[in-house]
Amino acid sequence: MNFDLGVIQAALPYLWKGMQYTLELTVIATLGGLFFGTLLALARLSSIKPLSLVATGYINLMRSIPLVLVLFWFFFLMPVVIQSLTGAERPPFIGPDRTAIITFIMFEAAYFAEIMRAGIQSISRGQVNAAYALGLNYRQSMTHIILPQAFRNMLPVLLTQTIILFQDTSLVYVISGTDFLGATSKIAQRDSRLVEMYTFAAVVYFVISFSLSLLVKRLQKKIAIIR
Amino acid sequence: MPMIDIKNVSKWYGSFQVLTNCTTSVEKGEVVVVCGPSGSGKSTLIKCVNALEPFQQGEISVNGTGVGDPKTDLPKLRAHVGMVFQHFELFPHLSITENLTLAQIKVLGRGRDEANERGVKLLDRVGLKSQAAKFPGQLSGGQQQRVAIARALAMDPICMLFDEPTSALDPEMINEVLDVMVQLAKEGMTMMVVTHEMGFARKVANRVIFMDRGEIVEDAAKDDFFGKPRSERAVQFLSKILHH
What we know:
The structure holds 2 protein chains of 2 kinds.
Chain A: H1 5-45, H2 49-64, H3 67-86, H4 95-121, H5 125-133, H6 138-168, H7 180-191, H8 194-226
Helix pairs in contact in A: 1-2, 1-4, 1-7, 2-4, 3-4, 4-6, 5-6, 6-8, 7-8
Chain B: E1 4-13, E2 16-26, E3 31-35, H1 42-49, E4 57-62, E5 65-66, H2 74-79, E6 81-84, H3 96-106, H4 112-125, H5 141-153, E7 159-163, H6 171-186, E8 191-194, H7 198-204, E9 207-212, E10 215-221, H8 222-227, H9 232-242
Parallel strand pairs in B: 3-8, 3-9, 6-7, 7-8
Antiparallel strand pairs in B: 1-2, 1-4, 4-5, 9-10
């Protein structure tokens, strides 16, 4: 068996397109997940019982089913659900790209919610009191005092979750999304070069994820000194 | 009309009663010191005044506004009641200047320049003008507490609440904070101060309130309190903190 680097080189432009999609998906899902996750965390911590219950239920549901299943559910079943709800003749086409973005945001929101909840709870009652005592209302206290500190305390964990997400985006492969792994796989099948392509994919994922986690470690040390 | 009026206030944590029928008032321009053993409910009482702690019975009004009234706009009320905490509670992610200006801008609607000017003036007053660009973590405890006082003053409060402002400080830093408070009292600020600093009480208090087990045991003019405390519990407390 000969290991042909030329195969990889020839495929690089196509693989780069796949990688762009992977990164795009990671960034969008992180930002969306963070946004909705923060809202979910606030809802879960809310003193309004029904709101808290719904948020807790959603978070527990998402954290208890495999990501692949959520992807399948959205891809195959959601169109049928929408069809029966709207009474359309044919199930609407959501497509892998939109499915992927919606699913990842919904799924990550549950995980980010739990991280943000821990972050919010790490801020002492005294800080909340100080904000209130100055006349800030709930929303102002959250946006200016509590959330920035919660976010800073949780930054290493948030970034670690993002690294996991970066790897998890490869699951769009199952709904034929052409992310980095999907692109690699297509070339591998076309050229019958499974060894080269899958080895290359593994190396790329490893290098990116591992260097990012090293960065997180350094960041963690830096934050520890500031405190 | 008193600035702070506390009438028959009772509070429970579950079935445990932390405040029992507390009644007192603070007139405009008056300095009232609240003392008592730890766990006597004095911090809880002062936190009830600006509704940081809810209470189940009785009434508190500040400048005529009912604190327990569900119709009261609490943020608006709190904006004009300065509060200083035991653990300073400066916002660690914001610079000293930002600590001083945030609420002025967001709550009072002042412009950034106006808020900055007011902040710097007060920072100068507490002797920390040169620290404006630093962060709270870079200051000593005494300095942080002085900034906290300046932060409260920046809101132009009608009265000030102090919740054990020197209890978390190293001994050598207590006086720099007390000096600022004495100055404030002399300028006629209405103050309710929970503290064990009896020297401060002697110097500037008009009245001293002694609390024990959630009750106001004594509420007397300063000289009466130190001269001839009526209750046995106050006598014991004073002998403990004055002679050791």
